Structure to design on (681 residues):
């Protein structure tokens, strides 16, 4: 088991290096291949109608005039030990992990992402708890009561949940519960440390809307998994032993049915931690998703690069956690 | 038969489906005493498995319609509260299934699964149950049971898995053991070992055993009595000597004729039974076997019109066939002897 985890960890580090190389290539190699030289790239980082001297200064400061592999080395070095941007006249220090320096906002990228991370973290984890509990519970009950009114009703709702986009359910929810009947007025992010109650109350609507989308999917998946598992021979064996039906369902049935759910849950959560773009945009929550949109809007390359790396990091880590969980859950993977 | 451990009377298990009523089991009766073995034989879909699942109360209780009587040690199981049947399941009656790999839970150790069966029926601690599981694994011939107890099913070989299933089934010392095709999924060499094991354990525990199979060789080796089923009904029921020595039903003749034999010269090809088993929704009128029976014409139309009753042709030997005794004597193929030497000492 420990060798298994170590093996996966080494693979993960390798994977992150590959991800960084690809991301770097997208942002710095492809423009070159498209015929853009370092001077033109540097103009992106300077204000409108820049002087040639200013552009050259920025080019030197960002090291865009170096060969690509040196730039990549500096990029990795920046993440590990920090970077100094020397324009000849002044030096700007970007402490590690340095994902670059946004010239639009005149700020290092990392601290900005760090300040937006709690919003996304709160949103994603809160919603994940809701959708996991609700989705699995509804899925199990639906499977056990297949064909009943409950099953049909909940699967109908689930179909709606899968089909309706957040920018629809979110706006409806805001209109109804924030404006018409102000149960949750003035939705904005309040830090958990500042006021836990307000933190939770203001996140209820985004949580529920985001969870609704996923819970629907999870309910359908759990239901299908349970139906399949409860027909397995080992369930018949469990009953033949004289186990109470509750034990048969939860210990023998759900345990096996949950394995694929664990996988998808890890991936979904990892993806969301990189920014719940639509939800954050709909509810104006300043998390990584909104950060991403603004970065793209501003064509702020270092910010886009940083958030891409961070999102990739979350997904890779989620993958690692899922792999380890899988081995914990299913002994066949371990051996 | 007050002393019979299991007394099944006119058991019927029907499943309503969208296509019609599936008469999976339609009027099956037999008795079984402690220490004796009943073989239930038939093709796929003859109702043999559903019969055994019905006895265990595992026949999808909510959807099936069950009638008749199943008396286990005098206690009626048909219509008994589900909780009571569950109590008996695994303790007083236990079952072994066909495919031991899919029948064992892949996520739990073999030991944990055996211990679980023991724990649910006995008020003991986990350590005691674990010791019992090790003990049971040793008894069914698993080498080094104290270490193998912590193995997962996928680490066992096919034969060992079936041994583990048997250990699980016997962990509460059941009086009735039902083995549903216990050797079908196993290698031929392992099949004999498993049958030997069931044989030995039965004598050790003095339990009653039902072996369900489509392989007459298996029942010949183990059974005292044999029930031949066709389309959910009883075709023939008698002692192993009756069935192999003087089989009375054309279907039984067909089964015997399609079985490879080592004790006879290979003069002829194996003779398959023509046709396929009928659908259990549209069972043929009259005798369900008549479309495949080469003697159907001799009954002058009765086979299509009337369901043959189960009639004794000798004491304790029942046959459901329209043929008269003389017709049967004339038609019966030459001596079908029990293929196994062991039959006598049952």
């Amino acid at each position: 088991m420990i060798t298994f985890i170590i093996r996966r960890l080494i693979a993960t580090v390798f994977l992150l290096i590959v991800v960084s190389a690809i991301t770097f290539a997208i942002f710095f190699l492809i423009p070159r291949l498209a015929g853009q030289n370092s001077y033109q790239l540097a103009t992106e980082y300077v204000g409108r109608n820049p002087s040639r001297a200013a552009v050259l200064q920025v080019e030197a400061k960002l090291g865009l005039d170096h060969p690509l592999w040196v730039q990549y080395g500096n990029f990795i070095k920046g993440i590990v030990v920090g970077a100094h941007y020397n324009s000849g006249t002044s030096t700007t220090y970007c402490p590690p992990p340095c994902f670059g320096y946004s010239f639009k906002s005149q700020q290092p990228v990392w601290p900005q992402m760090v300040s937006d991370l709690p919003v996304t973290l709160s949103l994603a984890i809160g919603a994940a708890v809701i959708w996991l509990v609700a989705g699995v519970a509804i899925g199990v009950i639906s499977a056990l009561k297949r064909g009943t009114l409950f099953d049909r009703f909940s699967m109908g709702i689930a179909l709606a949940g899968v089909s309706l986009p957040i920018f629809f359910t979110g706006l409806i929810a805001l209109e109804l519960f924030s404006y018409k009947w102000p149960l949750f007025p003035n939705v904005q992010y309040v830090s958990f440390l500042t006021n836990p109650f307000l933190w939770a109350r203001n996140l209820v609507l985004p949580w529920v809307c985001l969870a609704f989308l996923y819970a629907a999917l999870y309910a359908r998946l759990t239901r299908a998994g349970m139906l399949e598992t409860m027909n397995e021979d080992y369930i018949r064996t469990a009953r033949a032993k004289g186990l109470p039906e509750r034990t048969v369902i939860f210990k023998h049935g759900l345990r096996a049915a949950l394995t694929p759910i664990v996988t998808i849950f890890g991936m979904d959560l990892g993806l969301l931690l990189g920014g719940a773009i639509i939800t954050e945009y709909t509810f104006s929550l300043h998390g990584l998703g909104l950060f991403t949109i603004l970065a793209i809007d501003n064509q702020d390359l270092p910010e886009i690069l940083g958030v891409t790396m961070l999102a990739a990091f979350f997904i890779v880590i989620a993958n690692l956690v899922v792999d380890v969980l899988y081995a914990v859950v299913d002994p066949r993977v371990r051996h | 038969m007050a002393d019979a451990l299991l007394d099944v009377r006119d058991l019927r298990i029907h499943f309503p489906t969208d296509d019609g009523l599936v008469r999976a089991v339609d009027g099956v009766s037999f008795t079984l005493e402690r220490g004796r073995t009943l073989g239930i034989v038939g093709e796929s879909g003859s109702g043999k498995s559903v019969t055994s699942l019905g006895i265990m109360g595992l026949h999808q209780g909510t959807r099936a319609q069950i009638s008749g009587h199943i008396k286990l040690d005098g206690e009626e199981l048909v219509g008994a509260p589900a909780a009571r049947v569950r109590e008996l399941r695994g303790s007083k009656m236990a079952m072994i299934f066909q495919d031991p790999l899919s029948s064992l839970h892949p996520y739990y150790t073999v030991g944990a699964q055996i211990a679980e069966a023991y724990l649910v029926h006995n008020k003991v601690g986990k350590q005691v149950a674990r010791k019992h599981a090790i003990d049971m694994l040793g008894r069914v011939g698993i080498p080094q049971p104290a270490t193998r107890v912590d193995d997962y099913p996928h680490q066992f070989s096919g034969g060992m898995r079936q041994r583990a299933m048997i250990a699980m089934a016997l962990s509460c010392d059941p009086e009735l053991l039902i083995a549903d095709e216990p050797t079908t999924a196993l290698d031929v060499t392992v099949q004999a070992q498993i049958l030997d094991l069931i044989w030995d354990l039965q004598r050790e525990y003095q339990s009653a055993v039902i072996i369900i199979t489509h392989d007459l060789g298996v029942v010949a080796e183990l059974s005292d009595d044999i029930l031949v089923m066709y389309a959910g009904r009883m075709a023939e029921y008698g002692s192993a000597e009756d069935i192999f020595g003087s089989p009375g039903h054309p279907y039984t003749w067909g089964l015997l004729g399609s079985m490879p034999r080592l004790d006879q010269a290979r003069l002829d090809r194996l003779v398959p039974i023509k046709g396929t088993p009928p659908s259990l929704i549209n069972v043929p009128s009259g005798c369900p076997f008549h479309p495949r029976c080469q003697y159907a014409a001799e009954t002058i139309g009765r086979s299509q019109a009337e369901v043959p009753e189960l009639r004794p042709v000798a004491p304790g030997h029942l046959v459901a066939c329209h043929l008269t005794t003389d017709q049967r004597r004339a038609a019966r193929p030459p001596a079908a002897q029990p293929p196994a030497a062991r039959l006598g000492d049952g």
Chain B touches chain A through 30 residues (CB under 8 Å). The CA atoms of residues 264 and 272 of chain B lie 17 Å apart. The longest helix of chain B spans residues 188-205.
